[in-house]
Amino acid sequence: MKKTNPAIQFKSATGAMLLRIAPVFLLLGTWSYSCQHPFFWDTVQLASRQAQWYYDQNFHYLLLPDVIDSGHPSGFGMYLALCWQVFGQNLLVSHVAMLPWLGLLLAGLFRLGRIVDQPWGKFLPLLMVLDPVVLGQCSLVSPDVVLMALFMWGLIGIMGQRRILLVFCCLGLALISLRGMMAVVVLYLYQVFSTPDQAWRKPRHWLRSALPYVPSGIFALAFLLYHTYEKTWIGFHEDSPWRESFNLVGFKGMLKNMVILIWRLLDYGRVFVVLGALVLIFTQKKLLLSNRFLPLLVIALLLQLPHFLLLQGVSAHRYLLPVFLALHLLFLGLLNQSELRSKAKSVLLATALLGLASGNLWIYPRGIAQGWDSTPAHWPHFTLRKELIQYLDQQKIPLSEVGTVFPEIGPLHWRDLNGRQDGFSPLDLEQNQYVYYSSAMNDFSDEQLEVLFQKWPRILEVKQAGLETILFKKPQ
Q: Which of 41, 299, 325, 364 is deepest in the core (most CB within 10 A)?
């Protein structure tokens, strides 16, 4: 008879039910709370502005204008524009458009949790939903939610040998973004290297494994060739707003980027998951090499290294979502394999869960940039922003006189879908009469902050839950 693990045997059906419904309520509660939030961070460009183009042009053009074209396939923008055409253009419709993908994400977590060796696999949905990057992205109208859901179901297709499912997931990933195409490569390599008996040494195995990926590969190649033919560039062009992010760095820059990558991996409470995995490996060193999810983690991480290390500003938390999934799967797999006492395992899991939960509230001191789209800690920004705009309207101060930085530059309609074409101007301390500062912005330099806080009077200052918004007025 198989020995049970008493530490995770629930004393009642109620406990088991709570474990199943907690991730559902957490994710749907997040959606409900944020379903009127404006577009934020990169979703202004990757969702709102791209969808606006297709909405205004009635899908007449396939490729986007250069000012909002970052080289990605724009399947998500088309999807959102179609939702607007059918149901109306507003924030609620935009967030409702995310519900099918959130449902797919949740269903994938529960299915994948059952595939992971039991009994610890059942904790995967809660572990993933508590991850601040997942929860932060799920509160936005974000293509990365689609990417995460499709990547997860692609894994399920591999593990369940469901080729048709894998084909459609890979096609969906290729339609979303260049990183979606990269996720397809991760799935393919994982399928190649996760088979037993070192089948990856045989060329026939590589070819046979590639069959489900052919449709998405054909689409990706066709899109890249067509885009290059029409635009003569991929990813960025000389006048691109994000051109500087693709500048190559030197040796010191690579070292700095390596530190940033490690920080991203440990950030927002994930350090407790990593430490838990290291404890399990240290107590039984053979665990790591026999874990079925180690190849997934290594492959996903290695494919991120080139642009993370070599480029100046391509280091967002959300780029690592497949890595985070692989890390959580690895951790739970190690729990299953370890011969530690069940109480010790329970302590490691509880520490990881509580650490991730605390990460949703982490806010760094002023001057330290953080990924605000990758944490629910950005939510108070919208209340403070609304209060500032109301103040400016009441005082009859034109928004064009107020300078600021990403992500609030440009017409309010890009964020609020309210028809207002007035908006904040790019920061210029010589020209701006006012400056809008929020701690949920990273693009103020240390020198600019020093000038603002020491020399410019504050005419509005509001704070909430660790965030602050300040309206500065140019000194006379």
A: 325
